[in-house]
Amino acid sequence: MTQSTASDFDDQETSYYEAHRKVYPRDINGRFANLRKIAAWVLLGIFYGLPWLRWHGRQAILFDLPARQFHIFSLTLWPQDFIFLTWLLVIAALSLFFFTAVAGRLWCGYACPQTVWTEVFIWMERITEGDRSRRMKLDAAPWSGDKLARKGAKQFLWVAFSLLTGFTFVGFFTPIEELGGLALHAELGPWETFWIFFYGFATYGNAGFLREQVCRYMCPYARFQSAMFDRNTLIITYDAERGDPRGGRRRGENPRDAGLGDCTDCTLCVQVCPTGIDIRSGLQSDCIACAACIDACDSVMDRIGYARGLVRYTTQNSLDHGRSHILRPRVIVYFTLLASLCSGFALALARRAPVALDVLHDRNSLYRVLDSGEIENVYLLKIMNKDGTAHRFQVRLDPRHTANTTLQLDPSTPPFDVPDGTVFNAAVRVRRPAHADDRSITPLRFAIEAVDAPTLRADAEARFFAPRE
Amino acid sequence: MSQAVPAENLSARGRLWLTVTWASFLTASLATMVFFAFVDPTPIVALLTPTAAIPTRTALYSVGFFFFWAICATAASLTAWLMSAPSDDTTIGNERR
Ligand code: SF4
Ligand code: SF4
Q: What is the pLDDT of residues B17-76, one digit of tens each?
């Protein structure tokens, strides 16, 4: 296999993208379809509704990139809190591992945006072009006024919905009410416009056009999810032992007499599959575990009076007449990791310093000699208040650092009112009497303390410059 | 020239370039997030071009993203290109198909 790569690539994967066979999933009702619909409604509701939610006078969830602050209800994250975001991402990834090990591709079937948006797009296709067979006929038919009208209506719905999606997406990153106002007056900035169209285009392409090909060729999760699988993972399978040999039968006939299994070979499970596979050929990497085939098969079994579950959620172990174990080393390890990461996260978040202080020395001049002979340095204090409410901060020089110096804070320095979730820039002056000291550089430390809550404090180091004497 | 390339090769190649674009999009998004979490671009731009008006952060982030995308796409294309066996296009005695 040394000479493989490109030529293998060319040989095996010939028909992808260009010659791919269009899948026309058939609509199906049933237990899992309902579950999927509920999940889709909830997730879409969260996505489209969340940016409009207000919290204490501002957008509740706002990843305010222009202001370099993330607002999540009362929590404000600053660039310094980047670790928390990373941490969250690790937790999300590990939860995905955990759920995959226990319940297979639950994520794919019910929660992945790719699945959810594709379902919406297929629904729009259905209300404009009709059900599966009518869609197939329409695609095969020559262009006509009716075809044009139906296809046009579908495209209109798709494009409008994609743009709404792009707009909402951008609304998570710039205040959405402002964005909406600008959009209504066609005054959006060039980059906001660009990203709305970019994300809208991505939605249109992924959910309207690429669909199952995203899962097949683009999704990293689809590639590595099988690594989390074992014989106790929940999978969707066709019970070949019970179903085979397949074949049509007359009503009321005992299939065993005819040498048949329970599968009537109606291919309904194939027709409903959004990825266009046949579940009866065994577990396949293309299966996103949407359970549409379970609903389809159950409906057939109900109609002909057989027990449900010819296609069902099960595990490899119970399929082989063994016992399934939910608690197994892999699951326990994932769970322990997950639990410790989550509690660590909560702890760190709770102990996160609610105020922070940064000090910048004035860039324009190191020092100034006043008429009185005093030497003055100017500093820019950046007071960050992430406590959730406004506070008034008193600035001091930390006596432990300045006790043996003659440095003094300008006595006219007022206390500073810092609203919640903001960085307050305050210019303060520090002076040294004339001829009091001959050091050219003196370290010092600023301390801030909330007047109303003395436990809220922060400090930061700086240096005082003076001319050599 | 293009007639000499069978249709299926074209689509495999097309798929390769789409994969390059997509993979570099993912990595560029990651790079953009990490980079701009630590670096605020406005003071840097203000230093570099003290006289010009400073673009909005949104603009700077966006340009940064495309910059990363270009870099990542270059790396991915190089990988893809070097991964394809040299004999694909040129073999001794059969230089160009
Ligand atoms: S395979 Fe990937 S894109 Fe497809 S549903 Fe699963 S997670 Fe989503
Ligand atoms: S085989 Fe069944 S569960 Fe898998 S994707 Fe197709 S319909 Fe969904």
A: 888 999 999 999 999 998 998 888 887 887 787 777 778 888 999 999 999 999 999 999
DSSP A396-453: EE-HHHHTTS--EE-TTPPPEEE-TTEEEEEEEEEEE-TTS---SEEEEEEEEEESS-
Length of chain A: 469
Six-digit token string for A423: 């960085």
A59, β-bridge pairs: A54
**Residue environment code for A184-208, b if the CB has 16+ CB neighbours within 10 A, otherwise e:** eeeebeebbbbbbeebbebbbebbb
A274 prior amide bond cis, ω within 30: no
Question: In A, which residues are within 8 Å of B10 by CB distance?
Answer: 18
How many other CB atoms are there within 10 angstroms of residue B90's CB atom?
11
Query: Tell me, what DSSP letter sits at residue A110?
Result: I
Instruction: Please tell me the pTM assigned to this model.
Output: 0.79
To the nearest whole Å, the CA of B13 is away from the closest chain A CA by 8
Query: Which one, of A28, A30, A25, lies nearest residue A211 by Cα?
Result: A25
Per-residue confidence (pLDDT) for residue A328, from 0 to 100: 83
Going from the N-terminus, what domains does chain A have, and what CATH number goes with each?
21-352 (no CATH), 355-465 (2.60.40.10)
Strand partners, A369: A375
Shortest distance, CA A88 to any CA of chain B (angstroms):
14
List Cα–Cα distances, A271 to A24, A26, A76, A274, in angstroms: 7, 6, 48, 8
8 Å CB contact between A260 and A246? yes
Burial class (CB in 10 A: 0-12, 13-18, 19+), A132: middle
Q: Is the CB of A215 under 6 A from ligand 1?
A: yes
Q: What is the rounded CA–CA span in Å between residue A452 and residue A389?
A: 11
Mean pLDDT value across chain A:
86
In whole angstroms, what is the distance from residue A430 CA to residue A425 CA?
16
Does ipTM come in above 0.85?
A: no
Alpha-carbon distance of A48 to A117, in angstroms, equals: 12
Tell me the pLDDT tens digit for each residue of A109-153.
899 999 999 999 999 999 999 888 889 899 898 999 999 999 999
Tell me chain B's radius of gyration from C-alpha atoms.
20
CA-based nearest residue in chain B for residue A192: B58
Tell me which of A112, A277, A283 to substitute to probe ligand 2's pocket, judged by most ligand atoms within 8 Å of the beta carbon.
A277
Amino acid at A14: T
Domain locations in chain B as residue ranges: 25-80
B14/A66 touch (CB, cutoff 8 Å), yes or no: no
Q: Which residue puts its alpha carbon closest to atom 6 of ligand 1?
A: A108
Reduced 3-state DSSP string for A17-51? CCCCCCCCCCCCCCHHHHHHHHHHHHHHHHHHHHH
